[in-house]
Amino acid sequence: LFELFTRAGAEWVMYALLALSVASVAVILERAVFFRRHGQSRADVLAALLASGRLSDAQGVVEGLDGLEAEVVRAALRAAPDGAASVAELVASTIRRERPAYERGLGFLGTLGSNAPFLGLFGTVIGIIKAFADLGVGAAKGAGATAVMSGLSEALVATAVGIFVAIPAVVAFNAYGRRLRAVIARSEALAHALAAHLRQEDLPGATPQA
User: Fold this and answer.
1) Exposure of 101 by Cβ count < 10 A (0-12 exposed, 13-18 middle, 19+ buried)?
2) What is the pLDDT of residues 60-109, one digit of tens each?
3) In whole angstroms, what is the distance from residue 72 CA to residue 92 CA?
4) Burial of 202 (0-12, 13-18, 19+ CB in 10 A)
5) CA 91 to chain CA centroid, nearest Å
6) What tens digit of pLDDT does each residue of 104-145 get?
7) Is residue 191 a contact partner of residue 91, using CB atoms and an 8 Å limit?
8) Cα separation, 6 vs 53, whole angstroms
9) What is the 3-state secondary structure (H, E, C) of the chain?
10) How far apart are CA 77 and CA 59, in angstroms?
11) What is the pTM of this model?
């Protein structure tokens, strides 16, 4: 193991971090396009329509829209004739079905953000081991330590690169996680608005609305 570290150095760690950085940027851009495409929100309009019982108007608003909110509203409207309990069940099922598409790639970003600094530190340790091994060989041959200092500086770069790779991944992971939670919260709020209207209609003396 010592011979492997002293021969390989930290260079392979730098290449690994570079590959992970490219993959991270690809995931970040793909998620940005996905959330932009599925992030059309008409929650304010839909909440008012659902709460007032204007279900046909709400159906027209979500017609052609993509995203979790639109899917939840469509599912809730399909379940509306069966009552509030059916709406709640079908909405929960729709959220569970659609959620993995929103979470795709976030696990990779979270893992990379947590572990890239450690991978960079690992490269630094390997580079330092190699530098001191070269220093011992150079001292035996009468060479100075100045040439070995470049090896130490290269080794320390690995830690900096690890942190540099981790920061965008952590920022993107947190940003997309917040957007996902906001989408789910709005979707659940829309379902609650329709369920509240249906329960109100079920009250004695309530007047059905078209």
Assistant:
1) exposed
2) 888 878 888 888 888 888 888 888 888 888 989 999 999 999 999 999 99
3) 9
4) exposed
5) 23
6) 999 999 999 999 999 999 888 888 887 777 776 655 454 546
7) yes
8) 73
9) CHHHHHHHCCHHHHHHHHHHHHHHHHHHHHHHHHHHHCCCCCHHHHHHHHHCCCHHHHHHHHCCCCCHHHHHHHHHHHHHHHCHHHHHHHHHHHHHHHHHHHHCCHHHHHHHHHHHHHHHHHHHHHHHHHHHHHHHHHHHCCCCCHHHHHHHHHHHHHHHHHHHHHHHHHHHHHHHHHHHHHHHHHHHHHHHHHHHHHHHHHCCCCCCCC
10) 8
11) 0.81
Residue type at 42? R
Report the amino acid identity of residue 53: G
Amino acid at 180: L
Written as six digits, the tokens of 200 are 């109100």
Structure tokens of 101? 């598409």
